[in-house]
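ok, trying the design again with the full structure, not the truncated one.
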């Protein structure tokens, strides 16, 4: 048998069927597009949230509950900065001197270029912190670190919730503005303002409360919770700055509203639930079921175990409730029987007393006018013993009737 190892090109498929190739260069080079298509077809789109409000209004408390419920990443700006600087330092560690690493020439050129860029950014951030009086960094560097976090695979695949940031409309415009290095399909424009769709939140949660309510809440916090961040002077300064930033129409909430991300407002002062569970539940109901990456096998097993325990608890409560109702019904039945017996004795007593009261005049009449004559007639009848005692009594009573002359 003749065996041929020929590589035949599919000319008919390539030219005749007019197929529009979407990954002609292979899977590896087109992995981002394949991941995007995979998520779209299976409805695994990330959930992007943002929660805003005055200081100490409870943003972090609600954000933690929503992040846990929807299995998304909770982004607090301080953590983002710290994690971003750690990532920069880790990336910069690739830049070693030739004496220490002879294999430097073999390193991936793209990774080395990124490491050099990270090194420059890290140096700028450190210099900026040294020049700052409060150890803070400028907004542009914060936005660079935050944009890197928002564009990371975990946030882009699962989702995120921004906790209390951006605080001003200028920060929002700079944070969500087009970067120029992204996919044009992920960039949109509203009212002359361009933004990256992959970074823009889908839902905006705004927690409202009066200044008096917030002051009282901070005053009631324990010393371990207050710290420096929520000290009286620091809190009043932060609250004053927040109110000043939200006096005019040019607020960050209005910016989101112009971007068609309409706010969902909740008044914290009227929510009496523990840790604002009601607000978190209302927002979770509004958003719907979690979109992405369901629970793991262990989490499903734990959920079934909790459901079984909950069912057992409900069955025990229902059994105890039935037993309690049976005891109460038996006691109530005995009580009603005793009440009926008491009522019956009372009725009989009243009837007896009524009969006694009605019979007294007749008894007095008989004792006064009838019984003396009748008694004497019976005595005489017994003495005489007539053959017809009835006739004898009648004749005697007729003769001795005191009312007849």
């Amino acid at each position: 048998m003749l065996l041929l190892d020929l590589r035949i090109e599919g000319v008919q498929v390539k030219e005749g069927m007019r197929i529009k190739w979407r990954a002609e260069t292979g899977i590896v080079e087109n992995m981002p597009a394949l991941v995007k298509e995979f998520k779209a077809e299976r409805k695994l789109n990330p959930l992007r949230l943002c929660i805003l409000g005055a200081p100490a209004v409870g943003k972090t408390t609600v954000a933690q509950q929503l992040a846990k419920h929807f299995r998304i990443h909770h982004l607090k700006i301080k953590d983002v900065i710290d994690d971003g600087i750690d990532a920069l330092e880790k990336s910069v560690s690739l830049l070693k001197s030739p004496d220490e690493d002879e294999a430097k020439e073999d390193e991936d050129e793209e990774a080395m270029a990124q490491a050099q860029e990270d090194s420059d950014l890290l140096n700028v951030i450190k210099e900026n912190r040294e020049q700052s009086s409060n150890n803070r960094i400028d907004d542009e560097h914060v936005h660079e670190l935050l944009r890197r976090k928002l564009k990371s695979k975990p946030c882009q695949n699962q989702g995120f919730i921004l906790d209390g940031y951006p605080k001003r409309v200028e920060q929002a415009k700079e944070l969500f503005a087009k970067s120029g290095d992204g996919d044009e399909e992920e960039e949109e424009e509203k009212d002359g303002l361009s933004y990256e769709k992959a970074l823009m939140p889908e839902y905006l949660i705004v927690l409202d409360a009066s200044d008096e309510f917030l002051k009282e809440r901070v005053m009631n916090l324990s010393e371990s919770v207050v710290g420096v961040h929520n000290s009286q002077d620091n809190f009043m300064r932060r609250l004053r700055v927040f109110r000043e930033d939200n006096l005019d129409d040019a607020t960050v909430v209005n910016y989101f509203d112009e971007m068609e991300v309409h706010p969902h407002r909740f008044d914290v002062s009227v929510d009496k639930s523990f840790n604002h569970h009601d607000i978190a539940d209302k927002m979770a109901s509004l958003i719907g079921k979690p979109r992405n990456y369901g629970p793991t096998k262990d989490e499903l097993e734990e959920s079934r175990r909790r459901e079984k325990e909950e069912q057992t608890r409900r069955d025990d409560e229902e059994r105890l409730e039935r037993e309690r109702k049976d005891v109460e019904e038996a006691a109530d039945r005995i009580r009603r029987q005793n009440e009926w017996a008491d009522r019956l004795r009372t009725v009989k007593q009243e009837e007896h007393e009524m009969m006694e009261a009605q019979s007294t005049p007749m008894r007095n009449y008989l004792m006064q006018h009838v019984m003396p004559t009748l008694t004497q007639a019976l005595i005489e009848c017994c003495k005489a013993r007539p053959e017809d005692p009835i006739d004898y009594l009648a004749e005697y009573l007729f003769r001795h009737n005191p009312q007849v002359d």
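Keeping the full-length input from now on. The first strand starts at residue 47 and ends at 53.
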